């Protein structure tokens, strides 16, 4: 735990917690503009959150602590990831947690908490959402781990900081087939994990097609606010990871103000750029039928597997 | 004084004594002494194992026992580790059993056999000669068979399960027997040191035969593909605490056998052995968890998950062998440590899960998830226990399996330097398998916990469930404590894992060390489950505070479920385990091949009017269909054809003799 | 003293027979049979002690002789006869009550069993191959009426097959005996058919003649031992004989015939080298195993099932004998005892099952454990003992045979045998579990029998199993006898 | 894909310029702070109002720019958008939906039917106007009301 | 007795032995078969007598008398008694292998018996041992009768043929195996025949027939 890590951790925390609603706002705005609408402005998600936090929470009868704790777990896991992952600085506040597997598992833990909450309500929609979410995560998890594996193999470490640092030192890697394959696979995974089109429609109102939304139908007020906030933060974290694993430049490697500032700026720019790309892309897509989603995920799994195999074979001292 | 000796001796004495006690005491007074006795057997096992792991070697020979052979025991670090695991599981199970057995399992036979089963499992890793090993192995099979059959009068399926178990376990036994005897045939006698010595100049063919045969036997005990068929049958049908013993302790001994024979007795071996092990492990892991994900029988699900976890352990063992054969001791150490740690972790959480499942079964009389639900209200402790176990089993932090799977992945990731073409293909596939397993495990255990314990009751039995008696809860509590400890501070077992793996592989230093943070020695890699958990907790606390601070202080309100404004939701509207698994089942349609059956009953008046539609679906074990059924058909055909050998005609019978004698005489004339 | 000791096993049962002939079957004589068996056991133990401490003894002008092997066989006969005869009174009483027997048949039963015992004791004590043959053939004659005791169609059929097949087979052994006599007369005049002298001079025997003799002897005595190819009398006879007689036949008679093969093998090895008899025995053993495996798979009758299992175990014994060497022979002897105990428990148990259910068909016996826990427990454990699970002694002996086989280079034969044993075990377990396990049936006839067994009959089962388990844990005092006998047969003192 | 892109570029922004902010703002709505999630309940409407609501949230009128958004669950909503006279079958569901809303909550009655049952007044299947069942905060007149009017009504809640 | 005469008498006896065995195969009338069997007993007794005369052994002569009584007297008498009770079934109507094939088989068995006896002859060539082949053949033919004949009585005769053959072999190779054993063997054979005879009677009582191939109640 060094100074850089601690400062970075604080900065990342603030950035992600405060900035993620804005990211969602930007993405919605982009989408609105592309659809010919005016849009509610990038501050709208913050307004929503503020309102939700003021409202009362509702506990449906027959639900348990799981229902009440789930949003908390969801936010907590995301915040921990936001603090330890290398977004602004390569060093981590808690280095022994900044492991790729740990980060992935933490994010999955949040999803699991939400799925359990969905099941806990005992409504058909809750169960349906949980079932679908778990199906997706069961397929996403392997892709995620294998793409990470592809990235880690050549570095010889799964520590996020180490991977980022090594890419910084050897920029040629970014355009290697391994990176490209892994990147594509990761993009698909992130789309699935964050519930974006074409896997899930974040703005759907039709129960039969919902995934994420179905699980949280019973949440209201403060709880809902936390869930929404966590979703935004997860999106930010995933995009940040994607950005820094493949294009780490600009990240702070030293604890000087200039470097940190550059790190913050680079992070914001990269994430916003990715967000804009993502939401722009969504305009062109329709939601896949639920049972076509596995095909997409299987495809991404294949890509990640290819990436790993490539990383092994390319590293062969033939 | 040698504590290993004392521990083992005491375990044997107490075990036999409590068995006798069970036979002579009246039903009413039987349970507590047997329970306490079994706890003591377990505790002495743990003591002996712990001392052995700490470095005190021990061996003894008793020529008077076991005619023709004599028995000899020796405990080293590897044995010690398995002693500790078995003993630990036995303690929790025995405490639990006192309360659990009160409901029809307090028969003389079952109660007498329970401590003996534990004892047999303790003696297997302690055995130091082929004869001793096999006798303990078979005692374990016999005692477990009796226990599996304990409830045969209640359900017909028990007998079926027992048959499968008996036959499969005997199959494994025969394979092990042949394998080990081939080895014995090339050595001075049947003691392990002699075998070790003989293995150094064994011809590769013989070594291969020995390894493959013993592998067949040991994998059948560990529930590894394709010899797993007994496991999802026997584990659900056995009484739950016995399932826990079998699933958490007995299957481990299959792993022990592979490690003992492969690494210790045969001293490593060629690369393809371990590739085979790894591939078997990976296949089992995926197949096991896939079956578990499809299962709506709580205990069958847990049984399938055992196949999965043993598969993961085998991936570790296989990787260790692969690295060792490539000369990379450090990675071999990491992989083996991962495997051993996973053995320990699995033992802890599977005990907890089976005990909780037993508690549910005991309270509701059902293990069908589709008929459960809402148990948290009536059975809060059990719910917590199962939840904890499910968290651990799904390999998510802060659960136990997360740590060992992390370690396993670390070993695989660093496999690059040791790579050849085969490794380069196998490693990614292995990682993919582990990853897929992890993903499916999450879905599986969310299903088990969410459908079984959360939501609303789907049957009156589930609605009226009440919490189990204290002794059962205490047993679950012990397992839960072990789970939490292993999840947060795995470093408590690291020395044991380290010394066992260094001993087994003959390496210099343990591969994993650390107090708070697990640190790999020799390669980069660190993880701190404790810090991770603390971070989560701190953030949660801060969060709660922050939310209190910024959010309006509106009180939480309880409201009726949102039922779209229509009437109340009935339990039949809930998602069941089957419906939960349906999307996954569709995804893996080609692998699991579910069987569907639709019966449409028409009205009598007109065939256009439908009276009822009945839909049935089951997910069969496809491997069983493809592999076992042809064999069974063949054997049945053999049996019916062979009946013509004995038609009852005395002439035919005499003819057998006449032709044989004439044939032999001609042969004698010819070969003169 | 030695005379008395040696003659007692033959004379005591003969006297018992006389008592039954004179006094018939009544309350007082019911236990004579068990008492005489107990006496046989006692003298056997005393003889063993004498043999262990001393050299072999000969009496009656060299007609009877006892060495470690004979003593061991006497112990086997005594122990199993005691079990069987102890269960006999209860069995006969139940039969008489059920109207399937009269006190006349009971008396004849006991008389014949006593003669049977005497004949078997004579067989193992005979110092001479000819005497042995006479005694073995005598067992056939004596037991013929026991097999056909019930005079039903199947019983008569079984008796006929039993006598014809056994007589034909044993006639081959007689031919072999004459040929061996010829060979021995030629090279060592005066040796005759005496075991000790034959064994001593065996290396000088003419191989050409001895080969034929050995083949005929092994096939011939193999008939009586239930080995392929002339095994077919066994399932019929065992399924029709009264339970105690089946127990005796399976537990001892087969072993006594096998004892002859063991003796012949010593001579064959010395005269022809180890290869000849070994090959023959391996082939016969594997054939027997394959046969019993094939016929057990679709077996429908539990007494026949037990009979085929006897064929299996005889096959294993033959395999052990084929292997030779101290370990294998010791294992074979232990196996004889263990199998005898377990099998007699099972046959006695099957007799009770038959009396309770009135059927010997597997598919008509259901939920035995729920109705008769002790009986079902003994039956189930007995079957587990048969498939070679510890702590029963069959585990140690099968392991011994297998290990010796692998060490002796008979690995393939052993592997094949073990696979067949696996199939047999699967079949046995499957059939037995169908009978024993499950809820009690509630059809007609389910409640006819009282749930409690006769104490002594139950005790016989439990004691048999316990004895089998005890010698599986440790042979204790039997150990010196076993090793002496093994030395005797393995040829290396 | 390219054609879609060209279409987007050709079309540009179709949202009409925002009219000036309505004078009155509900005092209670200040708590919402410019964000209103809306759950729409059809209590027996002829679907005329629905069509207009659809337009209001379409690109041209773009009610979303003022912070209003349609949601799937009453738990997520701040306001109910009720259309049509409340039929007998929908009275109880409407009440329950209202109960399902977390505090603070609002009801907007859209169209004449919702306000006073319109042409369906006194019909045998009609319970009454929305306000007879749940408290109404905003009423939007018209049969059906024009999208501008709906947007205006909603802006009273969002305050933007 | 001169050597030539001895050899001729020996061969004559052996010839009758073989011929009677073949005749048993040939004839279907059970009464005739029993008569042939008695003749064989006579031949066997004559054989032993010749050997006794050749060796000048009184003991062996006594044995010959014993054999005469047992095999030409007692055993045929027993068989006749069994036949008398048999009623209708006096013919071996349908043997499992028909008569022509049986005779062919007998020829093959004779060859086999001859071939098998060669080592025995080689060990101690003498007229007696050279005749062993006949004994062997009779054993094999006896076994063949057991395997192929349906009537209980025919099987009984087959068993006795085997026994005659074995006895012949025994005496031709050595002059017996000791009196006790000899007696024991004879007693056993007698008892076995008795038992079988009783069983035949019982069988007829229960089955009403003695076609052995119909005895198939016990099978798997």
Automatic annotation (TrEMBL), chain A:
GO terms for molecular function: lyase activity. Its main location: membrane. The chain crosses the membrane at residues 6-27, 69-88, 100-122, 134-154, 174-192, 232-252, 258-284, 296-315. GO terms for cellular component: plasma membrane. It is found in: Membrane. Keywords: Lyase, Membrane, Transmembrane, Transmembrane helix. It is a multi-pass membrane protein. The keyword Cell inner membrane does not apply. PANTHER family: FORMATE HYDROGENLYASE SUBUNIT 4, FORMATE HYDROGENLYASE SUBUNIT 4-RELATED. This is Formate hydrogenlyase subunit 4. The lineage of its organism: Bacteria, Bacillati, Actinomycetota, Actinomycetes, Pseudonocardiales.
From TrEMBL, chain B:
One of its GO terms (biological process) is ATP synthesis coupled electron transport. InterPro entries: ComplexI-like_HydComp, NADH_UbQ_OxRdtase, ND/Mrp_TM. Pfam families: Proton_antipo_M. GO terms for cellular component: plasma membrane. Residues 129-414 form the NADH:quinone oxidoreductase/Mrp antiporter transmembrane domain. The keyword Lyase applies. Keywords: Cell membrane, Lyase, Membrane, Oxidoreductase, Transmembrane, Transmembrane helix. It is a multi-pass membrane protein. Signal peptide: none annotated. It comes from the Bacteria. The keyword Zinc does not apply. It is found in: Cell membrane; Membrane. This is Formate hydrogenlyase subunit 3/multisubunit Na+/H+ antiporter MnhD subunit. It comes from Prauserella isguenensis.
TrEMBL record, chain E:
It comes from Prauserella isguenensis. Its EC number is 1.-.-.-. This is Hydrogenase-4 component E. It is found in: Cell membrane. One of its GO terms (molecular function) is oxidoreductase activity. InterPro entries: HyfE-like (IPR038730). It is an enzyme of class 1 (oxidoreductase). PANTHER family: HYDROGENASE-4 COMPONENT E (PTHR38601). The keyword Lipid metabolism does not apply.
């Amino acid at each position: 735990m060094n100074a850089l890590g601690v400062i970075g951790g604080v900065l990342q925390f603030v950035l992600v917690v405060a900035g993620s609603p804005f990211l969602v706002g930007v993405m919605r705005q982009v989408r609105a503009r592309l659809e010919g609408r005016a849009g509610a402005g990038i501050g709208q998600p913050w307004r929503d959150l503020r309102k939700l936090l003021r409202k009362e929470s509702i506990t449906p009868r027959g639900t348990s602590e799981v229902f009440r704790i789930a949003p908390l777990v969801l936010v907590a896991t995301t915040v921990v990831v936001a603090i330890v992952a290398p977004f602004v600085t390569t060093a981590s506040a808690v280095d022994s947690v900044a492991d790729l597997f740990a980060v992935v598992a933490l994010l999955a833990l949040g999803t699991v908490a939400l799925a359990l909450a969905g099941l806990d309500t005992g409504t058909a929609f809750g169960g349906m959402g949980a079932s679908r979410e778990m199906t997706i995560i069961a397929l996403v998890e392997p892709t995620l781990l294998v793409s990470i594996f592809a990235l880690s193999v050549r570095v010889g470490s799964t520590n996020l900081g180490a991977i980022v640092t090594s890419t910084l030192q050897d920029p040629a890697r970014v355009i290697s087939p391994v990176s490209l394959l892994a990147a594509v696979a990761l993009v698909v995974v992130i789309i699935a994990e964050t519930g974006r089109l074409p896997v899930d429609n974040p703005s759907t109102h039709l129960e039969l097609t919902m995934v994420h939304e179905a699980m949280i139908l019973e949440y209201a007020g403060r709880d809902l606010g936390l869930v929404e906030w966590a979703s935004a933060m997860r999106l930010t974290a995933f995009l940040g990871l994607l950005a820094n694993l493949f294009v780490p430049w600009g990240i702070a490697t030293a604890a000087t103000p200039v470097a940190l500032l550059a790190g913050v700026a680079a992070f914001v720019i990269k994430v916003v750029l990715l967000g804009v790309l993502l939401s722009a892309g969504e305009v062109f897509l329709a939601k896949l039928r639920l049972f076509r989603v596995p095909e997409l995920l299987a495809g991404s799994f294949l890509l990640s597997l290819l990436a790993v195999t490539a990383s092994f074979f390319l590293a062969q001292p033939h | 004084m040698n504590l290993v000796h004392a521990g083992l001796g005491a375990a044997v004495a107490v075990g036999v004594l409590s068995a006798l006690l069970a036979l002579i005491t009246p039903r009413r007074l039987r349970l507590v002494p047997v329970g306490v006795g079994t706890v003591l057997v377990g505790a002495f096992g743990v003591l002996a194992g712990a001392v052995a792991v700490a470095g005190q070697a021990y061996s003894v020979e008793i020529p008077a026992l076991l005619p023709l052979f004599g028995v000899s025991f020796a405990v080293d670090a590897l044995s010690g580790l398995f002693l500790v695991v078995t003993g630990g599981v036995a303690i929790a199970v025995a405490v639990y059993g006192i309360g659990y057995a009160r409901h029809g399992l307090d028969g003389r036979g079952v109660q007498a056999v329970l401590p003996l089963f534990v004892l047999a499992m303790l003696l297997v890793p302690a055995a130091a000669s082929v004869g001793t090993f096999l006798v303990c192995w078979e005692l374990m099979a016999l005692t477990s068979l009796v226990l599996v059959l304990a409830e045969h009068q209640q359900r017909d399926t028990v007998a079926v399960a027992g048959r499968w178990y008996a036959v499969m376990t005997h199959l494994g036994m025969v394979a092990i027997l042949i394998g080990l005897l081939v080895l014995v045939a090339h050595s001075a006698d049947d003691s392990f040191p002699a075998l070790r010595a003989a293995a150094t100049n064994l011809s590769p063919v013989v070594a291969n035969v020995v390894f493959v045969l013993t592998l067949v036997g040991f994998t059948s005990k560990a529930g590894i593909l394709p010899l797993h068929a007994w496991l999802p049958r026997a584990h659900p049908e056995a009484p739950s605490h016995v399932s826990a013993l079998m699933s958490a302790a007995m299957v481990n001994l299959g792993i022990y056998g592979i490690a003992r024979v492969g690494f210790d007795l045969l001293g490593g071996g060629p690369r393809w052995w371990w590739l085979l092990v790894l591939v078997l492990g990976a296949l089992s892991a995926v197949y096991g968890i896939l079956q578990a994900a499809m299962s709506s029988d709580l205990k069958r699900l847990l049984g399938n998950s055992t196949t999965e976890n043993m598969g993961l352990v085998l991936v570790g063992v296989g990787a260790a062998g692969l690295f060792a054969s490539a000369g990379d001791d450090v990675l071999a150490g990491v992989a083996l440590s991962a495997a051993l740690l996973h053995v320990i972790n699995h033992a802890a959480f599977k005990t907890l899960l089976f005990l909780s499942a037993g508690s549910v079964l005991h309270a509701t009389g059902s293990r069908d998830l589709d008929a459960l639900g809402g148990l948290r209200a009536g059975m809060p402790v059990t719910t917590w226990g199962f939840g904890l176990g499910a968290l651990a089993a799904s390999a998510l932090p802060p659960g136990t399996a997360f740590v060992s799977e992390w370690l396993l992945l670390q070993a695989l990731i660093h496999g690059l330097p040791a790579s050849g073409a085969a490794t380069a293909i196998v490693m990614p596939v292995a990682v993919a398998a582990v990853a897929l397993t992890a993903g499916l495990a999450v879905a599986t255990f969310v299903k088990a916990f969410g459908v079984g314990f959360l939501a609303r009751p789907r049957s009156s039995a589930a609605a009226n469930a009440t919490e189990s008696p204290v002794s059962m809860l205490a047993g679950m509590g012990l397992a839960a404590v072990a789970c939490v400890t292993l999840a947060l501070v795995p470093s408590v077992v690291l020395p044991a894992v380290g010394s066992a793996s260094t001993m087994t592989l003959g390496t210099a230093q343990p591969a994993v060390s650390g107090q708070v943070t697990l640190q790999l020695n020799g390669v980069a890699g660190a993880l701190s489950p404790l810090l991770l958990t603390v971070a989560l907790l701190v953030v949660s606390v801060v969060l709660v505070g922050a939310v209190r601070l910024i959010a309006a202080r509106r009180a939480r309100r309880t409201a009726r479920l949102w039922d779209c404004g229509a009437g109340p939701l009935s339990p039949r509207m809930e998602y069941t385990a089957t419906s939960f698994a349906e999307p996954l089942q569709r995804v893996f349609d080609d692998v699991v091949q579910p069987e569907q059956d639709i019966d449409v009953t028409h009205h009598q008046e007109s065939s256009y009017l439908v009276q009822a539609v009945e839909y049935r679906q089951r997910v069969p074990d496809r491997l069983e269909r493809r592999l076992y059924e042809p064999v069974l058909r063949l054997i049945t055909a053999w049996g019916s054809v062979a009946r013509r050998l004995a038609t009852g005609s005395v002439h035919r019978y005499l003819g057998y003799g006449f032709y044989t004698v004439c044939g032999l005489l001609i042969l004698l004339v010819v070969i003169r | 003293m030695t005379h008395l000791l040696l003659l007692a096993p033959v004379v005591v049962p003969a006297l018992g027979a006389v008592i039954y002939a004179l006094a018939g079957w009544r309350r007082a004589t019911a236990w004579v049979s068990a008492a005489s068996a107990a006496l046989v056991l006692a003298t056997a133990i005393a003889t063993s002690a004498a043999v262990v401490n001393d050299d072999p003894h000969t009496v009656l002008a060299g007609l009877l002789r006892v060495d470690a092997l004979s003593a061991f066989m006497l112990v086997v006969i005594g122990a199993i006869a005691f079990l069987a005869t102890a269960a006999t009174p209860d069995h006969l009483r139940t039969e008489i009550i059920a109207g399937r027997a009269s006190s006349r048949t009971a008396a004849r039963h006991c008389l014949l069993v006593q003669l049977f015992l005497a004949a078997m004791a004579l067989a193992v004590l005979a110092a001479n191959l000819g005497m042995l043959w006479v005694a073995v053939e005598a067992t056939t004659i004596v037991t013929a009426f026991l097999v056909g005791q019930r005079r039903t169609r199947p019983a008569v059929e079984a008796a006929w097959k039993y006598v014809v097949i056994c007589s034909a087979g044993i006639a081959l052994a007689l031919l072999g005996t004459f040929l061996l006599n010829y060979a021995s007369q030629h090279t060592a005049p005066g040796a005759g058919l005496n075991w000790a002298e034959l064994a001593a001079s065996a290396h000088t025997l003419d191989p050409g003649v001895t080969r034929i003799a050995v083949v005929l002897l092994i096939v011939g005595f193999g008939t009586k031992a239930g080995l392929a190819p002339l095994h077919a009398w066994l399932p019929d006879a065992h399924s029709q004989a009264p339970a105690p007689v089946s127990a005796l036949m399976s537990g001892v008679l087969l072993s006594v015939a096998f004892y002859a093969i063991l003796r012949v093998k010593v001579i064959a090895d010395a005269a022809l080298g180890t290869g000849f008899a070994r090959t023959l025995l391996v082939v016969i053993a594997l054939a027997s195993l394959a046969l019993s495996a094939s016929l057990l798979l679709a077996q429908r009758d539990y007494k026949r099932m037990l009979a085929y299992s006897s064929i299996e175990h005889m096959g294993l014994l033959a395999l052990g004998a084929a292997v030779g060497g101290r370990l294998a022979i010791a294992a074979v002897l232990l196996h004889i005892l263990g199998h005898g105990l377990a099998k007699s428990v099972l046959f006695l148990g099957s007799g009770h099952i038959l009396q309770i259910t009135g059927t010997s068909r597997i598919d008509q016996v259901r939920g035995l454990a729920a109705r008769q826990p002790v009986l079902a427990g003994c039956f189930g454990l007995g079957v587990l003992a048969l498939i070679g699970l510890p702590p029963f002694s069959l585990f140690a002996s099968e392991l011994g045979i297998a290990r010796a086989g692998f060490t002796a280079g008979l690995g393939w034969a052993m592997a094949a045998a073990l696979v067949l044993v696996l199939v047999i075990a699967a079949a046995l377990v499957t059939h037995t579990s169908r009978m024993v396990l499950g809820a009690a049936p509630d059809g007609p006839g389910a409640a006819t029998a009282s749930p409690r067994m006769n104490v002594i009959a139950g005790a016989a089962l439990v004691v048999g199993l316990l004895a089998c388990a005890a010698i599986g844990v440790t042979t204790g005092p039997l150990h010196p006898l076993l090793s002496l006998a093994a030395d005797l047969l393995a040829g290396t003192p | 894909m390219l054609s879609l892109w060209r279409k987007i570029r050709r079309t540009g922004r179709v949202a009409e310029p925002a009219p000036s902010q309505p004078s009155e703002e509900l005092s209670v709505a200040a708590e919402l702070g410019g964000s209103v999630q809306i759950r729409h309940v059809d209590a027996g409407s002829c679907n005329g109002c629905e069509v207009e609501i659809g337009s209001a949230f379409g690109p041209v009128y773009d009610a979303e720019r003022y912070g209003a958004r349609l949601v799937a669950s009453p738990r997520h909503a701040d306001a109910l958008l009720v259309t049509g006279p409340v039929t007998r079958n929908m009275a109880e569901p409407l009440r329950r939906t209202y109960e399902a809303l977390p505090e603070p909550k609002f009801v907007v009655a859209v169209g004449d039917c919702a306000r006073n049952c319109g042409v369906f007044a006194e019909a045998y299947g009609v319970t009454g106007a929305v306000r007879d069942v749940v408290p109404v905060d905003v009423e939007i007149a018209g049969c059906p009301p024009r999208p501008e009017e709906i947007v205006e009504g909603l802006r009273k809640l969002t305050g933007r | 007795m001169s050597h030539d005469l001895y050899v001729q008498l020996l061969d004559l006896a052996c010839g009758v032995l073989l011929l009677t065995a073949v005749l048993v195969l040939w004839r279907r009338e059970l009464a005739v078969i029993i008569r042939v069997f008695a003749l064989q007993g006579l031949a066997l007794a004559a054989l032993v007598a010749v050997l006794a005369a050749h060796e000048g052994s009184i003991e062996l002569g006594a044995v010959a008398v014993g054999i005469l009584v047992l095999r030409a007297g007692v055993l045929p008498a027993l068989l006749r008694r069994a036949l008398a009770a048999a009623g209708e079934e006096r013919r071996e109507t349908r043997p499992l292998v028909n008569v022509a094939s049986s005779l062919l088989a007998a020829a093959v068995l004779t060859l086999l018996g001859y071939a098998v006896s060669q080592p025995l002859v080689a060990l101690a060539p003498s007229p007696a041992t050279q005749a062993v082949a006949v004994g062997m053949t009779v054993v094999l033919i006896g076994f063949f009768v057991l395997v192929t004949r349906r009537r209980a009585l025919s099987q009984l005769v087959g068993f006795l043929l085997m026994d005659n053959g074995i006895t012949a072999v025994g005496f031709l190779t050595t002059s017996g195996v000791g009196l006790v054993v000899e007696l024991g063997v004879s007693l056993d054979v007698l008892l076995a025949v008795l038992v079988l005879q009783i069983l035949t009677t019982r069988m007829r009582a229960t089955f009403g027939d003695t076609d052995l191939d119909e005895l198939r109640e016990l099978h798997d």
